[in-house]
Amino acid sequence: MLLATLLCYIGFTALCLSMNRHYDDLIGGSLTLGRGRALKLLGWVALLLSLWVALASQAMGQALVQWFAALMGSAVLFVFVMSYRPRLALSLAGIGALLAPVVACIQLLA
Amino acid sequence: MKEGFRQAMAWLHTWAGLIFGWLLFAIFLTGTLSYFKNEISQWTQPELVPHQVTEVDSVNRAQRWLQENAGDAKRWFITLPDERSPALGLSWAKARGGFERKSLDALSGTPVQARESMGGEFFYRFHFQLQMPYPWGRWLASLSAMVMFVALVSGIITHKKIFKEFFTFRPRKGQRTWLDGHNAVAVLVLPFHLMITYSSLVIFMTMIMPVSILTTYGGNTQAFFDDLFPAFKTAPASTETAPLAPIAPMFEVAAEKWPGSRIGLITVNNPGKANASVTLTPSGADHIPNISGTTLMFDGVSGALKDESTMSAASLMLAGGLYGLHMGHFAGPLLRWLYFLAGIGGTAMIGTGLVIWLGKRKLKHAKAGVLPFELRLVEMLNVASMSGLMLAVVSFFWANRLLPVSFAGRSDWEVRTFFCMWGLALLHAFVRVFFREGRSAWREQLTLAASLYCALPVLDLLTAGDYLFASLKQGQMTLAALDVTALITGIFLAWGAMRFGEGGKVAFVSKLTPTDSRRKSDSGVSANSGSEPARESVRADATAQEAN
């Protein structure tokens, strides 16, 4: 579930950045149309991927419950960290993006 | 037309939320505590020590003890110890009516001499029975759940920008922050809120909506439950006696039928009689859906498998699934903590809603400097239902440690302490809100609550430190975890109390006299009570969100 949680967090970060106001607050400058679309796509893909990862890792009932928990938990974490420590919120997403492939590899090998 | 509909929904959200908000806050808070029902019980009865024992050993001990001490009972119930509850739980329906419970030490098989306490069971029962006689409490709780559902749906409709403001939380902006917080905690945890509210209605559906049962079964609703759960049907005891077969071998059959599942409940009907029967039910900890209708029934004399019932109907699985999701018996430690946090989220959503209702109306009276009676009433109830309840909860734990261990009726006195404290908090809120101002009520109650929560670990160390250290030595974290949680709660409440302090940041226009508000804006501490434009913009924000 670690991988699914990381993907949820990355997904929410990308979706948030795909909005003009948040992009300006977090990164600065105006968001180009193309980049906005790319971020939105990345966000949704990450969320769907996290659902797939969760479903692939265990029985459906447990997987859905845990995925919802990861979804809600990462959204709450992101929103409140972003409100008080915007840089930290982005760094966490960066760390998540670095960790996700590693975790994926470990899970594939295991 | 559309705007009219949304306004109607906003009205509904506002008033349904206000009228039931106080009760719902209590239901949600005690329900949240109930996710740690067994852990709370362990803290309130530290004498119960967990042991490593096998299911077979446990059930043998239980059977031996019951045969010696409750051989003439109509029915036995045995729950085996697991990682969340250390004792072997026995209860039996006595031959002459009435019910008795006993906890056995899982290792020695003798009754444990633990202090009397309802522990987590108290919060759990209060959560849906509200300490009212049957069935009124359940009805009121169900009605509240219905209103909660209405408030959720009307809230979703009222909230125009769910996606646009999905990530929006603006701290330190007074009314705006409260509204953002209310929306954020509602939207981000919405799946939990919807699940928990809807499932609570499903749990009581046979009580709330009995029509389909009544039309099929007439007045004999027991027949419905007998059909639904055949294993729990009561047959009159036979007059012939016969020794009860050992229960332990039946576990082997169960292990074959339900691989990987532990036994949660053992029911023995008419023990010692010729028509005795033994029913095994799998543990809820191993499955998400509640499957109490899935059972294996054995002949109590020969020990042979007689009947097997499974819950396979889709509607039963759906209802059982919602029940299981609500209770969260299946949740491991991490998921259980998330349940707990989501529950706090729901509680916070209700609390912020109540604060916003009052804050918005207070703004209108900021200039006059005097709050009308009805707003004072709301403020009093806000204080008593939120900080007052926090005080009541912690006083329950204090009573558990301070009342003498062997004191008769101490369990009742713990409950009485809870309600006395709540009543005192209401009285204090009344005096403060009507004769001084609401801020002082909040500040004083939160300060007292903060000190009681922060001091709870100290009290635990002083009065039950031996148990705490022994449990830590065994690698059991439950007792320590409760202490640490109390400490964190205390720190949070202290932070809250400081916000209501003299020099603290004011979330709303709370100081109502013009001189006060001038003084604050001069010193530049006030968040938004100072300048008129700021107040206007806050009001505009607020009305844009929830027009009423």
How would you characterize the overall build of this protein?
- The complex is a heterodimer of chains A (110) and B (548).
- Chain A is mostly helical and 110 residues long.
- Helices cover 88% and strands 0% of the residues of chain A.
- Chain A contains 5 helices and no strands.
- The radius of gyration of chain A is 14 Å and the shape is elongated.
- By secondary structure, chain B is an alpha+beta fold.
- Chain B is 60% helix and 7% strand.
- Chain B has 19 helices and 7 strands.
- In chain B, a hairpin with a 7-residue loop joins strand 4 and strand 5.
- Chain B is globular.
- The C terminus of chain B is likely disordered.
Give the helix/strand layout.
The complex is a heterodimer of chains A (110) and B (548).
Chain A: H1 2-17, H2 20-26, H3 33-57, H4 60-84, H5 86-109
Chain B: H1 2-34, H2 37-44, H3 55-69, E1 75-79, E2 88-93, E3 99-104, H4 120-129, H5 136-158, H6 175-188, H7 190-203, H8 205-208, H9 211-217, H10 221-228, H11 250-257, E4 263-269, E5 277-282, E6 295-299, E7 305-309, H12 314-327, H13 333-364, H14 373-402, H15 410-435, H16 438-473, H17 478-499, H18 514-523, H19 532-545
Antiparallel strand pairs in B: 1-2, 1-4, 2-3, 4-5, 5-6, 6-7
Helicity range of the residues of chain B?
55-70%
The H-and-E topology of chain B, N to C, reads as HHHEEEHHHHHHHHEEEEHHHHHHHH
Number of helices of chain B: 19
Counted by DSSP, the helix tally of chain A is: 5
Q: Which strand order does the major sheet of chain B show?
A: 3-2-1-4-5-6-7
H/E series of chain A: HHHHH
Q: Identify low-pLDDT runs of chain A.
A: none
Using DSSP, what is the number of strands of chain B? 7
End-to-end distance of chain A: 14 Å
Largest sheet of chain B: 7 strands, antiparallel
Q: Report the count of strand segments of chain A.
A: 0
Alpha carbon gyration radius of chain B = 27 Å
Mean of residue pLDDT of chain B?
Answer: 86
Question: Which protein chains make the most extensive interface, counting residues with beta carbons within 8 Å of the other chain's beta carbons?
Answer: A-B, 22 and 23 residues
Query: Spans of chain B with pLDDT under 50 lasting ≥5 residues?
Result: 504-548
N- and C-termini, Cα separation of chain B: 16 Å
- Computed over alpha carbons, the radius of gyration of chain A is 14 Å
| Overall spatial form of chain B | globular
